[in-house]
Amino acid sequence: MRIVVLLISTFLLFGSVYVERIKKIKADEIIVLKSKRKLQLCFKGVKMKQYSVSLGGNPSGHKQFEGDQKTPEGYYFIDGKNPNSKYYKNLGISYPNGEDKAFARSKGKNPGGAIKIHGLPNDKPWLGKLHLLKDWTHGCIAVTNKQMDEIYRSIDIGTKITILP
Predict the structure, then answer these.
(1) Do residues 142 and 131 touch, judged by C-beta distance below 8 A?
(2) I need a surface site. Which of 42, 94, 125, 140 has the fewest CB within 10 A?
(3) Domain 27-164: which CATH class?
């Protein structure tokens, strides 16, 4: 009996230390799988955590123009962190890049911008995971507020983000 208690105590002690250590690890890459509605936080090529997401209201294909309701596809980086946004916290995505701007300009249009990873609207935090029932953003990537807290803590400005179809 003492051995069982000792083993359980040891596991609880070191298990909680391990969990706390994982919480402090910074991700060095974000991967978004649009077709699966998943966002992954990775460190040195290993997936650390995965979240379900909502995307722009017209999610298929790459964002090309302002107002097209699409979430971009491609290689970007996190270019800002805002703890006091219209939605619960946000991480800015460096869309549009040079190619995005050139394409939109060639069509005589604006590429749009202000693409973020964010939580729920500040006036609707009660939505929780219900937000996953429909793609509802203007091209951003949305998660629950609790998930946004974890992501926000794990990401630094400059972190790579790959958004795949």
Answers:
(1) yes
(2) 125
(3) mainly beta
